Amino acid sequence: MIKKILAMLNDGMDFSDKAIARELGLNEEVVRDYKFKLEAGGYIKKEDSDCNISCGEGKKCSCCSASLMPTIVKWSLTEKGKNAINL
User: Fold this and answer.
1) CA–CA distance, 17 with 57 (Å, rounded to integer)
2) Which branch of life, at top level (predicted)?
3) pLDDT at 83 over 60
4) CA-CA distance, 24 to 10, in Å (whole number)?
5) Please, are residues 49 and 61 in contact by the beta-carbon 8 Å criterion?
6) What one-character DSSP code corresponds to residue 76?
7) Which helix (H) or strand (E) holds 47?
């Protein structure tokens, strides 16, 4: 499951809790727990969000987990996360 979540971020898919839950058939609370553990383990990290919603018409960037400011959270894979996908 962890690799699937990391791959979603790596592939530029919607990384919101809701989208991940829907894609993987999980509860959103479970997804939040996975993301917390991935961040704590150094696999993913939050990026500084200076997004100005340049995606247009309220659409999300693939790395965002929210569609409108100021709640946008951008995530990225760390080297550890990238290596975990390739194992």
Assistant:
1) 21
2) Bacteria
3) yes
4) 16
5) no
6) E
7) strand 44-47
Question: Whole-angstrom Cα distance, residue 32 to residue 79?
Answer: 21
**Total residues belonging to the chain:** 87
Global pTM reads 0.73
* Structural domains present in the chain: 2-85 (1.10.10)
- How far apart (Å, rounded) are the C-alpha atoms in residues 44 and 36? 9
In whole angstroms, what is the distance from residue 47 CA to residue 39 CA? 12
CB under 8 Å to 70, separation ≥6 — which residues? none
Residue 1: both structure tokens together: 């499951």
Tokens of 45: 């990290």
For the record, the structure tokens of 10 come out as: 């790596």
Tokens coding 23: 């894609």
